[in-house]
Amino acid sequence: SYHNLVRYLTASGKSEEALETCLFVLKKLGVEISPNANAESLLTEAISVKEIIRNSHIHNLLDLPKMEDFDKMAAMTFLNTAVLCSYETNEIIFSIVICRTVKMSIQHGLCSTSAVAFSLYGALLTCPTLSDFDEAYKMGRLALMAIDRLNAFRMKPNVFLSFYGAIAHCKEPVQASIPKLLEGYEVAFALGDMERVTGILQLYAAVAVWGCGDKLTKAEEIIRIHFRRMLQHKQDISCKNILPHLNQVAKLTGSKENVYVTFFNTTEDNFFEEEMNRRGAHTRKLILHTCRMYLAVMCGDMESAAREYERNGAKYQGGIRFFGTTTRVFLAGIVGFYLARKRRLDEKKWAQVGEISMDTIKSWTQDSSWNYAHKLLLLEAECLFLKGEEHEHIAAAKYNESIALAKKHKFKNEEGLASQKAAMFHLEYNRKEEALSHLKHAKACYECWGATGLARQIKIAIESLSSQSFPKI
Q: Which of 45, 166, 295, 343 could form a disulfide linkage to 99, CB 3.0–4.6 angstroms apart?
């Protein structure tokens, strides 16, 4: 059947061919989506679906009649499949498909796929061009209720992927998403839905590490167990999306294992170059860039972090606001302000990178201070550090506020990072004791988090500074 063909093509990494097949079948079913759709087409679709939802009222959507037309139900299935194919290959078609799925649900009745449609539309509303987080959250919550109301248990992984990956952290503490992501993973695995298994495990790894949702040792254990599980089911392409996360955790914990050699008998550099030259694979490329950039920032290697940003910086601000997107924006801000201080000839360019990230996170903080307020404070401190001595006292206060708030909101990783950055700030003004105090605090944070590799690096910096040498930190 066409459905099995599309799944085979998607699992084989042939997303463009899979999307072409979906669009062909959809046309036969009376749903025509142009493969050449442009931004203007998307805007028309977005305005149309927003108007339809407004007229129907969100709280009444689950009271709509059930879908009974066989062709329409078949079209819903292929629209849902087209979402996965187009996400990797065509952002505009991806967004149009989501809008069409919602419109069909409202105009022709509800089915189990409608739950996915509502959650995906909520996720779409987190994009910078739409940025309606209140509406996104309402649609996401509606989708969760639809799982039971529409007897859509098989759709739970899809809904959880959208809601807990892209919507929940806009309003709720990101750490609360951890058990739900693992629940969605287990359901997907039991259903044999390997595409969602991969997507949810990627999101778990991002939230567990970048969002400090779990201690690193626990996160590594969970990622490794499920990674091996996927290998046993010969899901090599899916495993390649998880491998950068596993490598990142291994390095943070100080493991000497080279996971690229262990699982794919290759080096990290060879893996990186091969994937960067691969056509498509957009998600994997972003994961690779973000993991490498995150490691570089946490280890104080800002030049390497800058190279990662420059390779893929144009894509850091756009798209659905999955948690990885928020991490990339934050890291870009840290890199931008640092390099504005160090590369005075390019100060304006890098300061702008930092300011754009800071403004973006400031807007996010209005909806979720728990997840973003401490990040904003750190970026504000770095911005003031760049501006010079006249802002010295305010900058120092901002660093301290960021550290305190990261601790209060249980972001042990970013409590440590803010302490590191505060130490660099005080060293600039030759305040050795203050710098040592912050370094010791950073070391304690990383030890608590489970990042023993980072803690050892900070220990060396403390010993070096104690003996009057000023190390790079």
A: 45
End-to-end Cα distance, the chain: 58
Report residue 69's pLDDT band, with 50, 70 and 90 as the boundaries: very high
Residues sharing a CB contact under 8 Å with residue 256, sequence separation 6 or more, in sequence order: none
Task: Note whether 439 and 462 are within 8 A (CB).
Answer: yes
* 198 band by pLDDT with thresholds 50, 70 and 90: confident
What is the secondary structure of 262-279 as a DSSP string? HHHSS-HHHHHHHHHTSS
Query: pLDDT tier at 250 (50, 70, 90 boundaries)?
Result: very high
> Cα(333)–Cα(326) distance, rounded to whole angstroms?
11
CA distance 151 to 139: 18
- Given a contact cutoff of 8 angstroms between Cβ atoms, the answer to whether 153 and 180 are in contact is no
> With DSSP H G I counted as helix, E B as strand and the rest as coil, what are the percentages for the chain, rounded to 5?
80, 0, 20
Could you give the 3-state DSSP secondary structure of residue 243? helix
Q: How confident is the model at residue 317 (pLDDT cuts 50, 70, 90)?
A: low
The residue among 187, 253, 256, 185 whose CA lies nearest residue 219 is: 253
